Amino acid sequence: xxxQAQSLDSLIGLEFGHYxxxxxxxxxxxxxxxxxxxxxxxxxxxIKVLHPGTITDESARKRFHNEARALSSLNHPxxxxxxxxxxxxxxxxxxxxxxxxxxxxxxxxVGPLSEREVLHLGIQLADGLAAAHESAVIHRxxxxxxxxxxxxxxxxxxxxxxAKFRQSQAETAVTQSQLESHxxxxxxxxxxPEQLLGGEIDSRTDIYAAGLIFYEMATGQRPYLELPxxxxxxxxxxxxxxxPRQLNPSISxxxxxxxxxxxxxxxxxxxxxARELDVxxxxxxxxxxxxxxxxxxxxxxxxxxxxxxxxxxxxxxALFFVSALTALFLLLKARNLLPVLSTGSAQIQxxxxxxxxxxxxxxxxxxxxxxxxxxxxxQIGKTTALRxxxxxxxxxxxxxxxxxxxxxxxxxxxxxxxxxxxxxxNRLRVTARLVRAxxxxxxxxxxxxxxxxxxxxxxxxxxxxxxxxxxxKISPQDQARLxxxxxxxxxxxxxxxxxxxxxxxxxxxxxxxAERYFQLALDKDPxxxxxxxxxxxxxxxxxxxGYAPSSTTYPQAKASALKAIALDPSLAEPHVSLANIExxxxxxxxxxxxxxxxxxxxxxxxxxxxxxxxxxxxxLKRYPEWQVEIQRxxxxxPINYFTRCxxxxxxxxxxxxxEAIATLQTVAATQPNFSSVHMGLWGAYYKKRMDKEAxxxxxxxxxxxxxxxxxxxxxxGYHEAGYRLAMKRGADVLAARSExxxxxxxxxARLYSHAGENERALLWLxxxxxxxxxxxxxxxxxxxxxxxRPAPRFQDLLRRLHLPE
Length: 805
What we know:
The chain is of the alpha+beta class. The protein contains 34 helices and 15 strands. The chain starts with 14 loop residues before the first strand and ends in a 5-residue tail after the last helix.
């Protein structure tokens, strides 16, 4: 076996423990890389055999072992995994994931890449860097030879963080001889200014190197390629590189700007995180996919490949001609001499605010970006002249790479707002961009740096800026509603956003956490109206989800809603909560209608207000008015499965069973474990007398609820005597259970009604009425009660509920 003095190019065929060396793959500053076979796991691996002297003693070996262990924890599809580190008979080696393919420098040997390919690879590079930086690992030696491209165009970053160890083996002061010998952390042409000067190295150092790689992918050459090595240090420290578009005019201005921002000399002027860089790359990629970024012109080969003088002359002439046309166009545009294209001047009447991207690098701060998104939607929604898509629909595009034009088509909007939020302590940076959806053409971009105490004023400022850019006319009443709200303490605002984040989990533990956060917000600011509105929603959902009886939850919800309205009468949300209480608990339909209308007056874009009002109208059999409100709700919340599901329920109320089944099946395809969609299908099949299908949906409904006792009762009854006995057996189980625990009376009545047990069904309906269960509001239209309607007891229930008979 070899010792440290043995040549590293003579190891092929040898065995390092259970690794058999097969062939040499390459070499670098730390050693030689081989393809090897792992006989234990029967797989190919890459082994880096370190140069003799790289590790000088056991203390250095221990430090490198610790570094390798830390790097092995990086588990990301764009980072090559480190499997092992060992020493075999005096030779130190590192075992890594073997990645078939070509290195990026091999790929670049034939010239620059297309802009789409630059962005495709760049997103993967930024994503891998972000994952590593969030684990406090810096690469320090990014370059094309350290990036591997697989046959399916997946990028893998190699040698992550190993330069850190190499730096500890040498002096950090930079001299020309060191530059020539590369005896420091990094590779000279790919080093950032602070790296060359021995300054502080952080994630922004990797971003500079990434910018150099983007430059080389876009142009086919490194910056400062024309300089002799003796002048390279001064150029990196003080000179800007040749603008990429001078070398490859086919790339976009936006990509050139992104590269230039990466290559800023001062780290403070670069992207401040790889996640921030990733966001901009993805935005450019979406623009490119939709055709906004031109990639259709044939890209000229890099100038260094133009050996024919005549070809060079023609190329320069063509570029001059294009530049002259561009200058003429800009001059005419500046003097308003160009005709206005009608396709670009259509008025914007609808808008969607996409989820803001969390740039903090901490997933635990996702609540802040989500909460700010919701509040911005609410603020813009106060403008009656615009249709603003609801939170529930836009949140489905979080972490998506769907092009903006595709999102706009799904949501049926004219414009989109997208952006990012970065919170650090009490400082807040929000970047926002308004894009015309038809052409993905940016209309407006702005960045705001504020104290967290000013966040509500920032929301108002952002809203005013967007409305101003859209040039929508707003009424004096809208203007008053958009006025800057009072300041709120950062602690109270953060607690409120955390409460909303937990509430949207729609779970028992989520509601408990939400209540704690809303109460914390009130501890910090006792007059915070939104926190009271949040508490009202918590208590309402506890009842609707079956976690607590309405006799306990509704009084609490009403008190919180009334307090919120008293503190801030301009809030729409507590009026929706109050209306739900007045309809579902008090059965005061006029009062509920008044509060629904008031909520809509305060925020015409409240999808919840329109949908809940529609649900009230259909219960009162006011069908023409229902049609108006439900269509408005669906236009504001077009892809929310919750809204679509209960729209399917309402179609059953109207006897439109086939439409209902089609709607509900569409929801079930994406939300197979949403119990309410299966209850709706159960009801539609029951009305169509499709007993087998109705039975199957009833079983699925109780399976999702994990009520195995009822499931077994349904199955035994169905196999013994069919649908009716199945329903009776299920009802009997629930009725027996109600003697020692809370069970919804409506649920028991439904099963007995389907079983034809009318008297028992009426008994449990009366119990549901006495317990103020909210589903009784649908007695006049519900699909379960048709065989009960002639009964005097049923008609008496309708009269007591003030519902149409």
